[in-house]
């Protein structure tokens, strides 16, 4: 019998092999299926990245065209789901809405109970198309506007921004948003992906696994950090206040959102790319102050506490400059990460073993019940 070890938070515990994502935390490198994210951001689109994550190779021209067409034709939400969105309280948390709506998509999906790779690829494609439409449609409904019909001629990134605002976005905005979608698409066994794999390991269905992953992503120590970063920047207000804010926050032992990472100790490579995207986007936006404040906060936190920014730090001023409402920053991560979640689910189903760890019991030793009412 092997001796059990206890690792709170499963830090550095390896629970499976995977061919999808490689993270070198010491050197700050991130590869999807062997491709460096710098190359993918430079040369590929989100659609190509999704294909790569699902299939282990980049698509041929015809395959990419076919995926683009499938995504475009699946963007329209089923009328029942649209009606559901209209019935939700307008003040609902957008991640709660997304979780509930994805679960409902599962009720209506013709492949719901089929866990074959072919059926799961069809569901993955529909989910990529529709997580985007759900996020934008609910936003339109809650601000009292009609949801915008999707445009099949637009890329995934461009169509998201279009369905959000009703205006065709500029090329420079689409490029920056597409790059963010590539960067957020996959990240090994982060909390939400691990959650998805745990659910799938019971041989439950893809929509159940994705609904659970959305719940995990919502938390402020995971995807929720993105929104919290923007709230922090708004609290600071302007670059000159960053030093004083940092001193105060550290004295109060506040957790600084968008800083620190469980795996990257030398720098999150995604943060560096997002920083330059944010710089460009904010310069061309009416509110360059958020990038300038972020830079000052980064400097102060690094100087005072040695913490490094993670992926959610510079995506906050970037998303703000792209006109994305702050409380949609977390669903936007789901719009991208759905590609990675589903890739991990395909891998889990292909070679499954129930994920069932143990706990080290530290409660009281054996006690006896001595008749009713003795618990008082
Ligand atoms: N602000 C202040 N102190 C921090 C931070 C932070 N953001 N991150 C780590 N620390 C400190 C902790 O207080 C702790 O200090 P101590 O040893 O003096 O008590 C030490 O660094 C280690 O922190 P842990 O929480 O144990 O590190 P862990 O690896 O568990 O946490 C995490 C990683 C959760 C990301 C953490 O850095 C954090 O809470 N960051 C803020 C939230 C955030 O940005 N999350 C997004 C992560 S990326 C993503 O999910 C998309």
Descriptive notes:
The chain has a 3-stranded antiparallel sheet. It is globular, with a radius of gyration of 22 Å. The protein is an all-alpha fold and 376 residues long. Helix content is 57%, strand content 3%. A hairpin with a 2-residue loop joins strand 2 and strand 3. The site of acetyl coenzyme *A (ACO) has 18 residues, from helix 15.
Catalogue the unreliable spans.
none
Radius of gyration, rounded?
22 Å
Major sheet: arrangement of strands: 1-2-3
Mean pLDDT equals 95
Helix content range of the residues, please?
Answer: 55-70%
Ends apart, CA distance between termini: 41 Å
**Helix count from the secondary structure assignment:** 16
Quick one: overall form? globular
Task: Give the strand tally.
Answer: 3
Bound molecules: acetyl coenzyme *A
SS-based structural class? Answer: mainly alpha
Order of SSEs: EEEHHHHHHHHHHHHHHHH
Q: β content, as a range? A: under 5%
Q: Major sheet, described briefly?
A: 3 strands, antiparallel
Features:
376 residues; mainly alpha; 3-stranded antiparallel sheet; 16 helices; binds acetyl coenzyme *A
Structure described in brief:
With about 375 residues, this protein is mainly alpha-helical. Helices cover about 55% and strands about 5% of the residues.
